[in-house]
Amino acid sequence: MKDLFDKIYADKGPLGKWADKAEGYFVFPKLEGPISNRMKFQGKDVITWSINDYLGLANHPEVRKVDAEAGAKYGSAYPMGARMMSGHTDMHEQLQNELAAFVQKEAAYLLNFGYQGMVSTIDALVAKDDIIVYDVDAHACIIDGVRLHAGKRFTYRHNDMESIEKNLMRATKLAEKTGGGILLISEGVFGMRGEQGKLKEIVALKEKFNFRLFVDDAHGFGTLGKTGAGAGEEQGVQDQIDVYFATFAKSMASTGAFIAADQEIIDYLKYNLRSQMFAKSLQMQLVEGALKRLDMLRTMPELKAKLWENVNALQSGLKSRGFDIGTTQSCVTPVYLKGSIPEAMALVKDLRENHGVFCSIVVYPVIPKGLILLRLIPTASHTLQDVEETLQAFSAIREKLETGVYKRLTAAMAAEMGE
Does an H or E element contain 174, and which? Predict the structure, then answer.
């Protein structure tokens, strides 16, 4: 019999094998200073494009004031206990009611964390006879939720309507045998590529197929739609989304999440979401802070306007310089380059050390081998000067990548290390 840890000693995983070279710099980096468009990394000032603070609320003085006052009033413990037993308050209900109205649903229910809440919601919505149909590029929290499902599930090619219809046909045939139903899961905005889910086209399929639609709109909430209600509002189909999910960790610059749907669906979920039934209630400091943030989303449209001014300047500037930013339809701004993982490391180090630009780097196995993805998250806190400096930096690193500077540099480093 093997020791359980044998596999850990033998294989650190596709990302873990780079830990000795990458940790502390390329992964698990330590940004310092107040959350803003410019922070410090290893003692140097950098333009920060990796913080999901879309509307710039993280260090907004009004938000900081409410957070501090709520902390002083309640501490970080109250209310203790799970909501079903002892952790329920009028303020939790107020936030739920205001969130439901904001995203144009009958009711909403608070979740302690987005990832945890998504996993638990999927688990509660389906039984073993039901079938799940979901996008192959779905976020890890959706994939983990689907893994809990004891029944059948089908993946469709990313945003591919032909594949969606084909898999709905398969699911329908199976559901007719099992007597179950169908849950289709899409994201409102896919966080890596920035593409919106094809919600309008998906809901049109309800005329042919009997299914319910569950949308994870973490990146769309607060950034898309006339009022900021998200991708469904942007595409004119918010009322056709059966269960709507969003997190506070993006536009709201906080911790927590919520689901919204018809009242009867929410009533069912709040009595069957195991992660909420058996977990401590969302603390009052976060609830009061979320109420303030939501009020600012409703009453300060200039925040979203400034965000999109920066988004448009960044994305149009990248495209005019010939960069491939894919087919993003949101604030998420991916930049695709060609190169190896060592080249990617050299490129990002140059970007941070010599150009003062900090953004997220994504390589294999998250994306195919030979590709480098630099993901930028514009916020309302950025300036047009930040955009211009970043565009100049990206032009400089691309030239080095294409002329083989990083390849020669990494080869020399490998030779010195005897690799």
Answer: helix 161-178
How do 243-247 and 257-261 pair as beta strands?
A: antiparallel
Which H, E and C letters describe 103-150, residue by residue?
CCCCEEEEECCHHHHHHHHHHHHCCCCCEEEEECCCCHHHHHHHHCCC
pTM score, whole prediction: 0.94
Give yes or no: residues 98 and 188 share one domain. Answer: yes
Final residue in a domain of this structure, among 299, 318, 348: 299
Residues present in the chain in total: 419
225, 363: one domain: no
Please state whether beta strands 360-362 and 357-358 pair in parallel, antiparallel, or not at all (unpaired). Answer: unpaired
* Tokens encoding 360: 């997220």
* Phi, psi angles (nearest 5°) of residue 96: -60, -45
Residues of the chain below pLDDT 50: 416-419
Nearest 10 degrees: Cα torsion 277, 281, 282, 283: -170
Distances from the Cα of 164 to the Cαs of 182, 193, 205, 210, 211, in angstroms? 13, 19, 9, 13, 12
Q: Is 152 helix (H, G, I), strand (E, B) or coil?
A: strand
- Residue 412's pLDDT is 64
> Do 291 and 312 have their domain in common?
no
Instruction: Report the C-alpha gap between 217 and 415 in whole angstroms.
Output: 47
- Asked if residue 308 and residue 293 are part of one domain, the reply reads no
**Which residue among 255, 271, 299 closes a domain?**
299
84 located within any domain = yes
Give CA 311 to chain center in angstroms.
Answer: 17
Nearest of 143, 128, 137, 130 to residue 180 by alpha carbon: 130
Inter-helix orientation angle 61-74/284-299, to 10°: 160
Residues 260 and 325 in one domain: no
**What pLDDT score was predicted for residue 17?**
77
Domain assignment present for residue 1? The answer is no
Q: What is the DSSP string of 185-224?
A: EEESB-TTT-PBP-HHHHHHGGGTS--EEEEE-TTTTTTS
Taking every pair of C-alpha atoms in the chain, what is the biggest distance, in angstroms?
66
Closest CA to 143 of 122, 127, 114: 122
Which residues form the domain of 101?
Answer: 61-299
